Amino acid sequence: MRNTTVEPWVHQYVVTLYLLKALERDRKHAEAMKLSRIWGGLFERLLLLAEREHNHVKQRLRRSGCRIVLEEVTPERHYHVMYVFQGYEFHCSMMPIVLKGKCEEKLHELLKGVS
Known about the structure:
- This protein is 63% helix and 18% strand.
- It has three helices and three strands; from the N terminus they run ααβββα.
- The chain is elongated and about 50 Å long.
């Protein structure tokens, strides 16, 4: 049984979660830059937009009856999510390079909203 209704939202959940983590890490590194106040302001706005997007995805999953049960990084460094939908257990796994690409796409979307 393949779940095509919720699976894209689970992917978005993973992408927005990792984007939040990456933006927070990058914001901390930007504190050492010469123009840190400018970069800090940009990172704050991006973090706010990414958090809103992540919360929207979580609400969408909740409303559809989907529940994330497990999130883990496998020994192969793949990101694995187990979720329950309509009484069935599903698994979603993303390779690091795919996750990075999706985060970059989402960041481009968010940057369009900031400008």
